[in-house]
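dude i think i finally got it to work??
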Amino acid sequence: MKQILLLLIFSFISFVGFSQTQENESSHWNKNSLDINAKIDLKVFPNPCTGQKLTVEIDNEELTELRITNIAGKVVILKKYIIPVDRVELSLNNTPNGLYLIQVKTTENKLMAKKLIVSAR
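look at this
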């Protein structure tokens, strides 16, 4: 009986805590507020990235947010731009080799994603 009660309490606390954290972190990336079918010309180079610098360019739009996540979904880099830009250069000095997802959000609330391979060594 005690085990069931503890399990219920732990589940409730975990659910409430995680849902609040998830809501705060992903509120800008809500699919209902973004046009995920947008036709955006997003360029990520060099890809695979073998050096320390990565360039992200977008045509016909401007970036307001750039997010790089690893294969497990953990956000590795998050940049928000108060003044929108159409080209970003990022340093990947301490980024481990692997497969990543680059997501950009534009001033028109459009979302675009590209795969990135980091293979520095």
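The mean pLDDT is 78.
im so relieved honestly
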